[in-house]
Specification:
- It is a single chain.
- The protein has 2 helices and 9 strands.
- By secondary structure, the protein is α+β, with helices and mostly antiparallel strands.
- It has one domain: Roll (Ubiquitin-like (UB roll)).
- This is (2Fe-2S)-binding protein.
């Protein structure tokens, strides 16, 4: 399987064997284990950034891993805003990371400035 996945933990013991499944993240195929979360499968594949901040573009990953912080939001099978830490990975699932979006306030401020300069049709 994957070198980054912990299969023999000193306290929790040996992980039971599970079926390997394929999923797609940002256009690339990866392997996960049946029953694990999207976040766990991505971490085991060395992926730390699940999205970027919508306005600033700074990377975001797994923070709380219990569904409180919403930092792990991804798009799953074209459904946006899915929390990766709470959603079980499924065979053939298509996952996309969150991308930077246009900043509405910045665009609004620019339009106001243009209007003040007399450029009414912006």
């Amino acid at each position: 399987m994957n070198e980054l996945r912990i299969v023999n933990h000193p306290v929790l013991g040996t992980m039971p064997e599970r079926k390997s499944i394929s999923f797609i993240f940002d256009g690339k195929t990866y392997q996960g284990l049946e029953g694990e979360s999207i976040a766990a499968a991505l971490l085991a594949n060395g992926i730390r950034t699940l999205r970027v901040h919508e306005e600033k573009g700074t990377p975001r990953g797994i923070y709380c891993n219990i569904g409180h912080c919403f930092e792990c939001r991804v798009t799953v099978n074209q459904q946006p805003g899915v929390r990766g830490c709470l959603t079980e990975i499924k065979e053939g699932m298509v996952i996309e990371s969150g991308k930077q979006q246009p900043t509405p306030l910045k665009n609004y401020a620019e339009k106001l400035a243009q209007m003040k300069e007399g450029k009414r049709h912006v």
